[in-house]
């Protein structure tokens, strides 16, 4: 609903900005057989119903000053000041979109006693538009005028119009149509050409001085482009014409009407107020979002640069001088893992490091415990317990561990022979309380799994390296993580307060002062979801649990230490708030392609994609991964990323609503041992 509302606001703003180009005369054609001779030989004020045509010519020594394409917040006040100085009336042919944006200027024009005419809503060439578009252009401008100043208008000037000598079949069709709608069309006799970029004050002045004392309707502009010379030229033209005996009049006086701006009806005013309000809201929202988008872009690029620098620093670090050699316990929580448990335990049995394995069966109903026991592997203990959830299963395993370090892994994961040895080496430093390993996707068949493979490589190869150096690691992954027992005891083990027990535990440990580091060479291979529905359930739980953990540990923001200022803010800004804005950013991209400069919009978007692509390639190089899967990266931006947005939105709504989720189990296919052989051989 928010995205739809935002899209609607952008459409309103886009329509307001749409098609507005600087004014200027359009060359006429030789096709005039449908133009009445009364129009071709008459004056610049034209009344027609399609059958009968009459015109009004400006009497000698009289001038009607007209201004098109406003109101403009810069130039209209300048012109009004000059007109007031010489007490001269004028007629302003206004653009509906500009009226909607600057209703206060419209009221200033009205209150100063000037006339207001209709110049369409978006300034299109009406000869190329159908009747429906013409009706919309005129009606919306009338509504805008009614909402801004409480009046309507019976006079009209077509965009890009010129003199009666320029009338041809196409523009006459527009005037005839407008006459049938009750409008009096007003063109001009003299064009100041203040819309020309090279026009000087002298050029403008010369262009609007009549010959042989003739009267004239004179065209100036108070909007639509650079009108910086118009007011100055006007201050020269008016006194010069007055010295020559000219007087200034209005369209109403020329035609004998009481006013060209009768009061709007109550309905018109109500609709107009709604239109003006919608446009102003759209303009403000679009402006704010454009500024926000700039901030987001700067933050995103700055964060990317920082994590790349920190990631590179981590890649160059030296291994511990003293190796860690003490035995460790590997705890494997298992719930209905019959497809994978055998592969998991066999991979642990092949470890080159001394370990004891504790399998905690959490009330499985598919024979997981029986499979684990039937393998009869050395140093494997299987503990049965009623279904109590993953945190409880892990706590049971920890309670049965008698080593200084405990490794936790998932029952659907396999280790390489050297994984445990590499994972525990950082514990040679007594300040280290936990170590995150490098989780990798084993089943890299299918688009969904490959997208996750790309995501995992970037997340582990760059992000976790940077978090290690910045000492703000938020998550030791459940698939592969090692913990010092002293740190676990200090935080009371794992909690079931959140669905992201790994994030909850990691934050708790780092808040107590322990260091949490990343060991990229300790690799674990896990089976990723292969369908969108499975992926949705998994990421929904992860995202929701992360939000729970952030809220639980919110006091870290005011505590001493680095996590609150770095880790928690990183989670809040870059993993929650900015991704929530991403759908709006995509909508803004589409808006930019249609209503802004499409080349600049596309260039900015492609530039961001290029930066992301380069960082992804760098991550793959750091992790010594093949670059072949990266041809799927563009598709990831259009499909996978959108799904993750929706997951985050659903998680946010669930968190705000206080919905409680359970431990959701994904369906596995197994065969990880074979896949592992393919990856490492």
UniProtKB/TrEMBL annotation:
The Gene Ontology terms for molecular function here are: glycosyltransferase activity; hydrolase activity, acting on carbon-nitrogen (but not peptide) bonds
Question: In terms of domain of life, where is this protein from?
Answer: Bacteria
Q: Which UniProt keywords apply?
A: Glycosyltransferase, Membrane, Transferase, Transmembrane, Transmembrane helix
| Segments traversing the membrane | 288-310, 568-596, 602-622, 643-663
Q: What is this protein called?
A: Bi-functional transferase/deacetylase
**GO annotations under biological process?**
carbohydrate metabolic process
What InterPro entries does the record point to?
Glyco_hydro/deAcase_b/a-brl, NODB_dom, Nucleotide-diphossugar_trans
| Similarity comment text for this entry | Belongs to the glycosyltransferase 2 family.
Q: Which residues form the signal peptide?
A: none
- The NodB homology domain, residue ranges: 61-249
PROSITE patterns recorded for this chain? Answer: NODB
């Amino acid at each position: 609903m928010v995205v739809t509302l935002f899209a609607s606001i952008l459409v309103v703003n886009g329509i307001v900005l749409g098609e507005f180009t600087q004014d200027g005369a359009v060359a006429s054609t030789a096709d005039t057989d449908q133009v009445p001779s009364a129009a071709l030989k008459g004056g610049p004020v034209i009344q027609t119903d399609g059958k009968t045509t009459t015109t009004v010519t400006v009497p000698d020594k009289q001038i009607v000053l007209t201004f098109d394409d406003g109101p403009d917040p810069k130039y209209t006040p300048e012109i009004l000041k000059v007109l007031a100085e010489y007490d001269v009336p004028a007629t302003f042919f206004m653009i509906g979109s500009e009226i909607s944006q600057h209703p206060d200027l419209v009221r200033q024009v009205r209150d100063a006693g000037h006339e207001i005419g209709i110049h369409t809503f978006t300034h299109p060439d009406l000869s190329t538009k159908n009747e429906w578009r013409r009706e919309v252009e005129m009606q919306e401008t009338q509504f805008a005028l009614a909402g801004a100043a409480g009046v309507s208008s019976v006079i009209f000037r077509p965009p890009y119009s010129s003199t009666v000598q320029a009338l041809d079949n196409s523009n006459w069709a527009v005037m005839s149509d407008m006459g049938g709608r009750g409008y009096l069309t007003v063109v001009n006799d003299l064009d100041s050409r203040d819309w020309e970029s090279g026009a000087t004050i002298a050029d403008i002045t010369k262009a609007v001085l009549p010959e042989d004392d003739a009267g004239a309707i004179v065209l100036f502009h108070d909007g639509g482009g650079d009108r910086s010379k118009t007011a100055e030229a006007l201050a020269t033209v008016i006194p010069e014409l007055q010295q020559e005996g000219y007087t200034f009049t209005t369209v109403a006086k020329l035609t004998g009407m009481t006013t060209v701006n009768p009061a709007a009806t109550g309905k018109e005013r109500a609709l107009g107020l709604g239109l003006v309000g919608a446009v102003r809201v759209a303009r403000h929202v679009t402006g704010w979002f454009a500024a926000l988008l700039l901030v987001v872009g700067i933050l995103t690029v700055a964060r990317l640069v920082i994590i790349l620098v920190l990631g590179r620093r981590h890649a160059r670090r030296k291994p511990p001088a003293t190796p860690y050699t003490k035995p460790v316990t590997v705890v494997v929580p298992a719930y209905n893992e019959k497809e994978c448990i055998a592969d998991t335990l066999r991979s642990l049995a092949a470890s080159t490091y001394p370990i004891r394995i504790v399998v905690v069966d959490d009330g499985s109903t598919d024979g997981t415990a029986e499979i684990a026991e039937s393998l009869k592997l050395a140093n494997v203990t299987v503990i049965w317990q009623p279904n109590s959830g993953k945190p409880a299963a892990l706590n049971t395993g920890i309670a049965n561990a008698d080593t200084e370090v405990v490794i936790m892994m998932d029952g659907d994961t396999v280790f390489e022979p050297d994984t445990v040895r590499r994972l525990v080496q950082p514990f040679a430093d007594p300040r280290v309380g936990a170590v995150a390993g490098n989780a990798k996707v084993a089943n890299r068949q299918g688009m969904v799994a490959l997208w996750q493979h790309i995501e995992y490589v970037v997340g582990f190869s760059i992000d976790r390296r940077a978090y290690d150096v910045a000492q703000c690691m938020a998550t030791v992954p459940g698939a592969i993580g090692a913990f010092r027992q002293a740190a676990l005891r200090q935080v009371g083990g794992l909690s079931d307060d959140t669905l992201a027990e790994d994030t909850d535990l990691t934050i708790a440990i780092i808040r107590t002062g322990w260091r949490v580091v990343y060991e990229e060479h300790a690799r674990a291979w896990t089976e990723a979801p292969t369908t969108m529905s499975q992926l949705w359930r998994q990421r929904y739980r992860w995202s929701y649990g992360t939000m729970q953990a952030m809220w639980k540990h919110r006091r870290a923001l005011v505590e001493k230490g680095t996590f609150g200022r770095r880790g928690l803010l990183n989670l809040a800004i870059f993993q929650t708030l900015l991704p929530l804005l991403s759908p709006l950013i995509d909508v803004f991209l589409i808006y930019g392609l249609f209503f802004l400069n499409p080349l600049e919009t596309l260039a900015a978007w492609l530039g961001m994609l290029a930066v992301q692509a380069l960082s992804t390639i760098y991550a793959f190089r750091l992790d010594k991964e093949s670059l072949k899967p990266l041809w799927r990266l563009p598709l990831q931006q259009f499909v996978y990323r959108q799904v993750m947005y929706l997951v985050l939105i659903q998680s946010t709504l669930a968190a705000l609503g206080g919905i409680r989720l359970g431990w959701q189990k994904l369906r596995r296919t197994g065969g990880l041992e074979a896949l592992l052989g393919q990856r490492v051989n």
